[in-house]
Amino acid sequence: MGNAPDPPGKRALELDCSFAEEPVNVGGLGSGPSPYDFVSAGLAARTTMTVRLYAQCRSRA
Q1: Domain segments of the chain: what residues?
Q2: Do residues 23 and 34 make contact, with C-beta atoms less than 8 angstroms apart?
Q3: Known Gene3D superfamilies for this protein (predicted)?
């Protein structure tokens, strides 16, 4: 994403993690986020965008 400022009224999420790691209880080292953490973050981001779009559309009606 770089160091460019966010546009007015917009926010960008920058993740500084380039790997996923399984938890210790399933054989991983537990040294980073699990793949499920990335899936959960993606679903949360998409849900947030959908709710924001819906709210913007409703405010125009």
Answers
A1: 34-60
A2: yes
A3: 3.30.300.20
Token pair of 57 as six digits: 């559309």
Question: What ranges in the chain are assigned the alpha helix state H?
Answer: 35-60
Buried b (16+ CB within 10 A) or exposed e, 30-57: eeeeeeeeeeeeeeeeeeeeeeeeeeee
Q: Tell me: the pLDDT tens digits for 2-48?
A: 556 655 666 655 656 667 778 888 888 878 888 888 899 999 999 99
Q: Which amino acid is at 49?
A: M
Residue 5 DSSP one-character state: P
Answer whether 37's CB lies under 8 Å from 22's CB.
Answer: no
What is the residue whose two structure tokens read 């994403």? 1
